[in-house]
Amino acid sequence: MTEMEPSEKGEKEPQRDEKWSEKEQEKSWDEKWRRDPLGSIAWAAILIWAGIVFLAENLDWIQRIGPPFDRFEAWSLIFAGAGVIFLGVVLVRLLVPDYRRPVVGTLILALVFLGIGLGETVGWQIIWPIILIALGVSFLLGGFRRRS
Q1: What total number of domains does the chain contain?
Q2: Is residue 86 part of a domain?
Q3: DSSP secondary structure string, 88-106?
Q4: Which tens digits make up the pLDDT trace of 58-103?
């Protein structure tokens, strides 16, 4: 298949997105994963964290630790931990050029998970406004970063 084929008017029309090279189009999912394993690592870390929290809950370790963990239920700890893990992914994506990708979706998911995890303990009337403020600040910073 050629890059450009003539149209009825004699003009050349692109047959596929010219931004992508043929090499990028031929990459399999396995190759893409090897270049960017952060998503899989994050979800694996969340599953491990959930398993640790459930084990600690079943063995009453959380109650024995005492404050501040004894106020949390297992699901709250899991969601808060997942939020922290996703915030770590956002930081890695911002700081490491090899893993740089858009982070807005991951940041929103991280803040929602943190809100769910901390909402029962801290209170929804405080958590959701803080999440909205953090999202607004991140959008502002992202806008300034694009301009420079």
Answers
A1: 1
A2: yes
A3: HHHHHHHH-GGG----HHH
A4: 888 777 776 766 677 889 889 999 999 999 999 999 888 888 888 8
